[in-house]
Write a structure and sequence with these properties.
By secondary structure, the protein is mainly α. Helices cover about 50% and strands about 0% of the residues. The protein has two helices and no strands. The protein is flat, with a radius of gyration of 17 Å. The mean pLDDT is about 75.
Amino acid sequence: MDNNHPDKNLVNTVKDLETEPVNSLDAQQQQQAHNDRRKQSQHDSNGKYKESEKDNYK
């Protein structure tokens, strides 16, 4: 492992920690926004699951 470049996963974790939620409502809203973006990325422009994803949801 190259010591000049930090671990990508740790860098992302540090960035997540920098945006700590103020209270449980903020935490829930941030998590829901994350889940919504993740779910939306699994759909095509017609709102249907992408062809490569269809067998995962039987």
